[in-house]
Structures are given as structure tokens and as C-alpha cells.
């Protein structure tokens, strides 16, 4: 048994070092702020809930950390300037967004003595490899020049098929493209609960989630306000995308000023979703999460073995079926016996790939009259599941 003075000494060390061991640390964060915080009344931007966040951003930057904002609010801000009494059409909402963008940016700029930089994106920008890289480079340059990037979906041009749809997932995509280590989602409740705290007084806050599964998704309800497009489910979807790529994710209450004081102190005031893996490279992130699949290639078990066990490229000889009408360079899924085993960029269009499926690579030119490559999908352009 240890002497009493030794026990006291060791206890003191534990009390001192344990909080340090459990401190919340980060270097580059994406902070998503929704319409419920920016335009709490549903029209016009407000600073009611933003001052504490602005102080946190300024203090973090002064400490050498990097922050990118993903901000809603342009449509809500423009709604007060477009006088209609009916449900707004797509064109009217796009007009609201166009009018509201300047108002939303001005609302942010008034809190800072450093420049804010607007970055407008659509889902199509994130799916295109060239534009994806350009976005990454632009964000890097904005941060290099000590400006605050403020990202929003380009609602003035995006139609449904080009929309990310909600800013929770846009926040996740931004964290991926910016290679951030943290996504902070500011909500109007304290985090993820065992039930809806607005309806169930016995609901308790879940402070830590190490694995996102069907049980966690089952806790998600609908949107908390009539202003935004998201809800808890989209926040969990965003956390799922990020944690699977090595990015820790927090859901916190952005309406409480003490939230950001707690974050500055290095602690988590809401729900922390811990990463399930280490950060993966930018191309893998792009292939996995942002690139929309245009078709499917069905392969035999021999091809599956070569892909999964040997890390090989996909050859035409192992292909047994083509599903979909995709073009050269489109993203496709690779399936074997009903299970998707990979995703990648196809070097042939669906029509030509149908003609060369099952044949040896040396015979491609004789069948098609040309040969783009000896492989259908190169291993460098493929992600295994």
C-alpha cells in the first residue's frame, strides 16, 4: 500500500493532468451556422446569436488556428425584400438568395476587422475534379491572406439536381475539400439527445459518439425551425461523412454564448463524434463522398480477388455486365455478386465498355478501333469499400 503523501501527490497529478488529456484540440475547423441563428425570425439577418461566435472566431485566429464558415441566411435575408404572400417559386427563392447574399455577408463583416471572402458552391462544383481542386486551392489562398472564407450554396443558379440541399452536408463537404480536422455544427439545441428534448422532458444529452450506426440515425427527428432545410438527421449525415474520413465533428448550441467560451477553454459543450479513421487523401475523399455515380460495372469473382486482394486495376476481361449509360470519365460503382466493392472513374463509356467486356486487354483496339487504356478503371482512380 502506498504511503499517504504519495497517494495525495499522485491524486494531485491526476487532477491536474486529466483535463489536459481530455482537452478538445483542433487546428483547422469548418463552422456551420444555420438560418435559425442568422435569421431567427425568418426574415432579415440578425446579430442576436452571432456575437459570441464572432468572438470565438477572432480569438481562435489570434491563437493561430484557421476557420472556414459555412453560412446559411441568404434566402431568409432576401425574403424581407421580396414581397409575396404565396409560397415562393424556385425563381422567387433564387431572387431572394441573390438579394440576400450581400445582406448576409454584410451581417458577418460588421463583426470583424479582417476581410470576409464569399465562396459560392453548387454540388456540381464538388463533383467535378478540376473544380474541386480549384475550390481547395482558393480556400487555401484565402486563409493564407488572413481572410475569413464564408461558404454558401449558390442558390441563385442551383436547381434541385445541382443542389447539395442543406448546409449541414455542405459543411461536411467543405471540411473534406478544405482538409479540415474539425467540423463544428451550430444548432439551436445542445447536441444529440436520446429523444427530442422539445417533446420529452426525460431526454438526455449524448456527449460522445464513437460510432454512427442505425441506432444513432434513429435518434434523428425533423427540422427544429421553419427557417432552415436541415434537422438532426442531416447533422448526423454530415458527422458520418466527416468521421469516416478522420474529421471530428461537434454539434453544439449556437444560441448559447457560453458554448463558445467552453470551446475556447478546450472542452466540448455538446456532442462530439470522434473519427473512425485517420484522414485520407484528398482524391479518396472526392471519390467517396462528392462524386455522383453514373452507372455500375458488374464483375466476376476473379476480378474481385484482383481488386481487393492484390490492389489491381479493373481489366475488361473480368467484366460481366454494364448497367447505366455513363460517359468516359464518369464515376461508376463496381459490383460483385450483388455487393458494391469499389467506386472509381471509368476510362471508357458504357457503349464501348459493353463491346469489350470479357475480352483481353490486347484485343481492345481490334474491337473498338482505338484503345484509351488497357484497363477499364485504374487503381489510382478507385476506392475500395
At a glance:
This protein has helices at 4-21, 35-38, 51-62, 74-79, 90-109, 123-127, 129-144, 167-177, 214-218, 232-243, 257-264, 282-290, 301-310, 350-356, 364-368; strands at residues 28-33, 66-71, 116-121, 148-153, 182-187, 208-209, 248-253, 271-273, 293-299, 319-323, 331-336, 339-345, 382-384. It has 385 residues and is an alpha/beta fold.
Keywords:
Carbamate kinase; 2 domains; alpha/beta; five-stranded mixed β-sheet; about 375 residues; Archaeosine Trna-guanine Transglycosylase, Chain: A, domain 4
Structure description:
It is built from 15 helices and 13 strands. The strands form 2 sheets. An 8-stranded mixed sheet has the order 3-4-2-1-5-7-8-6, sandwiched between helices. It has 385 residues and is of the alpha/beta class. It has 2 domains: 24-284, 3-Layer(aba) Sandwich (Carbamate kinase), CATH 3.40.1160.10; 292-384, PUA domain (Archaeosine Trna-guanine Transglycosylase, Chain: A, domain 4), CATH 2.30.130. The protein is globular, with a radius of gyration of 24 Å.
Lay out the secondary structure:
Elements: H1 4-21, E1 28-33, H2 35-38, H3 51-62, E2 66-71, H4 74-79, H5 90-109, E3 116-121, H6 123-127, H7 129-144, E4 148-153, H8 167-177, E5 182-187, E6 208-209, H9 214-218, H10 232-243, E7 248-253, H11 257-264, E8 271-273, H12 282-290, E9 293-299, H13 301-310, E10 319-323, E11 331-336, E12 339-345, H14 350-356, H15 364-368, E13 382-384
Parallel strand pairs: 1-2, 1-5, 2-4, 3-4, 5-7, 6-8, 9-11
Antiparallel strand pairs: 7-8, 9-10, 11-12, 12-13
